Amino acid sequence: MKDGLRETVGKTITKIVVTKRPRALEQVFLIFSDGTYFEFWGGEFNCAGGVDHGGFSAVLAYAERAGGSITAVYPASSNSLTDPSSAQ
After folding, report:
1. Are the C-beta atoms of residues 37 and 29 closer than 8 Å to each other?
2. Mind listing the pLDDT tens digit for each residue in 43-80?
3. In this structure, what DSSP letter does residue 48 have?
4. Per-domain residue ranges for the chain?
5. Are 24 and 43 spatial neighbours (Cβ–Cβ below 8 Å)?
């Protein structure tokens, strides 16, 4: 995945736009309050049924249980996968 995702940290999402283009390309645009947007695109997107409770440690545990591996965390305060909000 490209590095632009890190630029979304701290922004406020005001709108989400989902599109489908010819050749089965789907796009999801996150529109931010500062007049910028970020785009995800691909052949197919699947989403969860809703917003889940938990936070950073719950996401790490969920990914591990599902057999996934974390490839990036933004913002990262170090090379380790610790919750940046728990740093003193």
Report:
1. yes
2. 887 888 888 999 899 999 989 999 988 888 888 754 45
3. -
4. 3-79
5. yes
Burial 61-74 (b: 16+ CB within 10 A, else e): eeeeeeeeeeeebe
- Which tokens sit at 34? 């500062």
Token output for 79? 């090379």
As a whole number of angstroms, the distance between CA 38 and CA 36 comes to: 7
Helix (H, G, I), strand (E, B) or coil at 53: coil
Q: The whole model's pTM is what?
A: 0.71
Name the nearest CA neighbour of 71 among 5, 9, 25: 5
The owner of tokens 């409770």 is 53
Q: Which phi and psi angles does 15 have, rounded to 5°?
A: -160, 150
Distance between first and last Cα of the chain: 30
